Amino acid sequence: MAGPSHAGAVRLILNILWFIFGSGFVLALGYGLAALVCFLLIVTIPFGVASLRLAVYSLWPFGRTVVTRPGAGAPSAIANVLWVVLFGWWIALTHLLAGIAQCVTIIGIPFGIANFKLVPMAFWPLGREIVDVD
């Protein structure tokens, strides 16, 4: 029983460090503001929901993963194509470059991995959901 509690403690420590030093707060704030703008424009509400999902995931990424939501069909695929063209490619590229920069130092490797985990979600967010690893 020491394994699971140890893993949970490590995840908690990594999430706290990510929140403070790994840009978790800044990312969540940025995604939250983007969601607010999307909600105000009404037509872009699905993108606002995706931005909120990204905000929550970027706030506390360790111990969670992204899975494809069953039942997400053609509308989410079409919206994802629009997302990629307008926002997704440069947001994913930013996470990729930040992850590479963080992996340069040994202590930054877990934060780099967290940024790499955010790349697919930032690139193609609709039709996915965030679940706990356990």
UniProtKB/TrEMBL annotation:
Statement: the UniProt record of this protein carries the keyword Transmembrane helix: yes
PANTHER family, per the entry: INNER MEMBRANE PROTEIN YCCF
Domain Inner membrane component: 13-64, 78-128
Cellular component GO terms held in the UniProt record: plasma membrane
Domain of life per record: Bacteria
Taxonomic lineage from the root: Bacteria, Bacillati, Actinomycetota, Actinomycetes, Micromonosporales
InterPro entries xref list: Inner_membrane_protein, UCP028777, YccF
The UniProt record lists the keyword Cell membrane: no
Residues passing through the membrane, by range: 12-33, 39-60, 72-91, 97-118
UniProt entry keywords in alphabetical sequence: Membrane, Transmembrane, Transmembrane helix
Organism: Actinoplanes utahensis
Name the record gives this protein: Membrane protein
A Pfam family: YccF
